[in-house]
TrEMBL record:
One of its GO terms (molecular function) is zinc ion binding. InterPro entries: DNA_Rcmb_RecR, Rcmb_RecR, Rcmb_RecR_Znf, TOPRIM_dom, TOPRIM_RecR. Keywords: DNA damage, DNA recombination, DNA repair, Metal-binding, Zinc, Zinc-finger. One of its GO terms (biological process) is DNA repair. Residues 78-173 form the Toprim domain. May play a role in DNA repair. It seems to be involved in an RecBC-independent recombinational process of DNA repair. It may act with RecF and RecO. A zinc finger (C4-type) spans 55-70. Belongs to the RecR family. The gene is recR. This is Recombination protein RecR. It comes from the Bacteria.
Length: 196
């Protein structure tokens, strides 16, 4: 019979990147905290779940709609950086060198996993480009097989629309995730993007 600690461990194990040992460590940590501290933790989870939503323009996670990036008149609205996840937006923002807008696809093309064009926010990107004066789209998908396939698909699609399409420069390891790259690598990759 599972104990409450086993049940809590299993819940932590369901989180991405958390193995059995880390899940057990987190479960032990939580049960050793004061009730007030646990209540704060639960309230923070509930607050984030209830108040974070996808921006109706770029599909980044935000507590406001449109998000602060889309509504910032100080940003360059003629450039859109296309990324796979909201975590990628945060990683590029940490570099401090990009001042345009974003579009979050929420994944990458992966036929083996059943993820096709209709499963991503590509249609919304095309609609967005049709309603704005965007001059350049930077494709910043992960440098893995799925990310490269997505980048090539988007490049072909967008070039017919007469928009300049660039790809962030190499410097990120093949098979790596943008969200785990350091700021200097990301800053160089964005600054040295290449025409596709």
């Amino acid at each position: 019979m599972d104990t409450p600690l086993d049940t809590l461990t299993e819940q932590f194990r369901r989180l991405p990147g958390i193995g059995v040992k880390t899940a057990r460590k987190l479960a032990y940590y939580i049960v050793q905290q004061s009730p007030d501290r646990v209540d704060e933790f639960i309230a923070a989870i509930r607050n984030a779940k209830e108040n974070m939503h996808f921006c109706s323009i770029c599909f980044n996670l935000s507590s406001k709609d449109p998000c602060p990036i889309c509504s910032d008149d100080g940003r360059d609205h003629s450039i859109i950086c296309v990324v796979e996840t909201p975590q990628d937006v945060q990683a590029i923002e940490r570099s401090g060198d990009y001042h345009g807008l974003y579009h979050v696809l929420h994944g990458a093309l992966s036929p083996l996993d059943g993820i096709g064009v209709d499963d991503l926010r590509i249609k919304e990107l095309l609609q967005r480009l049709g309603n704005t004066d965007v001059k350049e789209v930077i494709i910043a998908t992960d440098p893995d097989v799925e990310g490269e396939a997505t980048a090539l698909y988007l490049a072909r699609l967008l070039k017919t629309a007469g928009i300049r399409v660039t790809r962030i420069a190499r410097g990120l390891p093949m098979g790596g995730d943008i969200e785990y790259a350091d700021e200097a690598t990301l800053a160089g990759a964005v600054a040295n993007r290449q025409e596709m």
